[in-house]
Amino acid sequence: MNKVHVKVNDNVFVLSGKEAGKTGKVLKVDPKHNKVIVEGVNIVTKHKRPNMRLQTGGIIHQEAPLDASKLMFVCPKCKRPSKTGVKFLANGEKLRVCKACGETIESVRESKATKDKK
Q1: CA distances from 93 to 11, 21, 77, 99, 107 (A)
Q2: CA dist., res. 99 & res. 85, Å (int)
């Protein structure tokens, strides 16, 4: 399983491909396949056939996964794409930081706690 540098609810910037230059919020992360679904980016058209449970069929527009290597985290403070790093405090706590401005994004423990609640 790969480590992905972005997390759910992060704002990201698309670096390459047909969606280059767009920004959006991360909806879902699949570290096994190194894919990320971003809100409003990489919209595809699916033709859905009606069935007994879901009576409505038709053309559906939805987000398709992008490779995580095409995305860059957008810092909430400096509002520009940047890399993220980890800073260790004296008490052993890990903090996620923006490498461009040095601002603390979140505690690694906090993000795991919110993930466990879901």
Answers
A1: 24, 35, 22, 18, 8
A2: 6
Q: Determine the distance from the C-alpha atom of residue 86 to the mean position of all C-alpha atoms in its chain, rounded to a whole number.
A: 18
pTM for this model (two decimals): 0.79
Q: What is the sign, positive or negative, of the torsion defined by CA atoms of 90, 92, 95, 98? A: positive
Sequence length of the chain is: 118
Residue of 105, 17, 2 lying closest to 65 (CA atoms): 17
Q: What DSSP state is assigned to residue 74?
A: B
**For residues 100-113, average pLDDT:** 73
d(CA 14, CA 42): 10
Residue-wise pLDDT for 39-88, tens only, equals: 999 999 999 888 877 678 889 999 999 999 999 999 988 899 999 988 88
3-state SS assignment for residue 43: strand
- The DSSP letter of residue 60 is E
